[in-house]
């Protein structure tokens, strides 16, 4: 590695390491304080059909750091997992998402399911299912309005325990999605054992699916696999018309990415749902049913 060549470069490398360790140490303390002072929020990214109609939203966590501004989740989720803060943080995420759903409902918006990213520690913790059950009741939200995104690594880490937990979640009506599918180096046998509903094709395969034949074939294979197993496919990170055209021609079900919508604060999502003709007077859902 370039960074390792020569004593001068080593010094730079060592300094970077030290900076990182210091920052992580500081952030751990800051995370704790921020949980108390509610500095976490959610943005929502739409999941759409090829024609553009919005059929779901993914909640993504944001941290407004008191000094450093917006810190992206890739920089704090793993830190929160290493310290014990992930459980408290995750619970806050669920409260934020469910209270938002309740507010949208009150405003007369026809709700679409919201998916939430769940870390391994959270999914496998004893308190997770009871917590979620209570939270759904508290906000009056049906389980079918919630989807959980879980990565392959977590699903295969303890498959028997996952079968147990996912079955309970399914009983609550909650859907299960495999996030970043194809990057987990895992066997496929978990797909037949676990009650899964959705495969999300990892962005790394989408990026060049319209130009690199290996990526094209991987996407095609995942879509066919999902179809044969009767799972829904979502392509994540769709940025161009050409990627969309390729994926659509192979029968991908749903799309997410900057080409359609960036993650947005709740207030703007409301406008989006409006724009796409999904705003209905309260109770309209019930008419005729
Ligand atoms: P993810 O669940 O795979 O989410 C997709 C990430 O890709 C998001 O990054 C999203 O903003 C980004 N993205 C969406 N469309 C595009 C696109 O077209 N191009 C590009 N370049 N990027 C796109 P974000 O919000 O920074 O989140 C990163 C990861 O952090 C997530 O990956 C998820 O694993 C984790 N995460 C986010 N929120 C939470 C949370 O509340 N709890 C947990 N446990 N993890 C979370
Ligand atoms: Mg996700
Ligand atoms: Mg993903
Ligand atoms: Mg990802």
TrEMBL record:
Domain (EAL) ranges: 24-277
The organism's taxonomic lineage, starting at the top: Bacteria, Pseudomonadati, Pseudomonadota, Gammaproteobacteria, Oceanospirillales
Full-protein residues shown: 737 to 1025 of 1025
Family: Belongs to the ammonia transporter channel (TC 1.A.11.2) family.
Source organism of the structure: Reinekea marinisedimentorum
Record's subcellular location: Membrane
Domain of life of the native organism: Bacteria
Protein name as it appears in the record: Amt family ammonium transporter
């Amino acid at each position: 590695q370039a960074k390792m060549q020569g004593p001068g470069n080593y010094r730079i490398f060592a300094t970077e390491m030290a900076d990182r360790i210091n920052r992580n140490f500081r952030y751990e303390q800051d995370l704790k304080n921020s949980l108390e002072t509610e500095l976490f929020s959610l943005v929502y990214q739409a999941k759409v059909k090829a024609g553009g109609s919005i059929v779901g939203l993914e909640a993504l966590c944001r941290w407004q750091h008191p000094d450093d501004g917006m810190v992206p989740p890739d920089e704090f989720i793993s830190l929160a997992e290493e310290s014990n803060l992930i459980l408290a943080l995750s619970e806050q995420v669920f409260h934020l998402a469910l209270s938002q759903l309740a507010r949208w409902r009150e405003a007369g918006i026809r709700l679409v399911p919201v998916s939430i990213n769940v870390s391994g520690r959270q999914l496998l913790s004893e308190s997770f299912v009871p917590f979620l059950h209570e939270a759904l009741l508290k906000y009056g939200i049906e389980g079918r309005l919630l989807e959980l995104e879980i990565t392959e690594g977590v699903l295969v880490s303890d498959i028997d325990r996952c079968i147990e937990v996912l079955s309970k979640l399914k009983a609550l009506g909650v859907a299960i999605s495999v996030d970043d599918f194809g990057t987990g180096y895992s066997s496929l046998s978990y797909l037949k054992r676990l009650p899964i509903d959705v495969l999300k094709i990892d962005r790394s395969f989408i990026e060049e699916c319209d130009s690199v034949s290996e990526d094209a074939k991987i996407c095609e294979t995942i879509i066919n696999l999902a179809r044969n197993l009767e799972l829904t496919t979502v392509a994540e990170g769709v940025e161009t018309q050409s990627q969309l055209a390729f994926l659509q021609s192979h029968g991908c079900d749903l799309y997410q990415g900057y080409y359609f919508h960036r993650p947005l604060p709740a207030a703007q999502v409301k406008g989006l749902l409006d724009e796409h003709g999904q705003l209905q007077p309260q109770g309209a859902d019930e008419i005729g049913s």
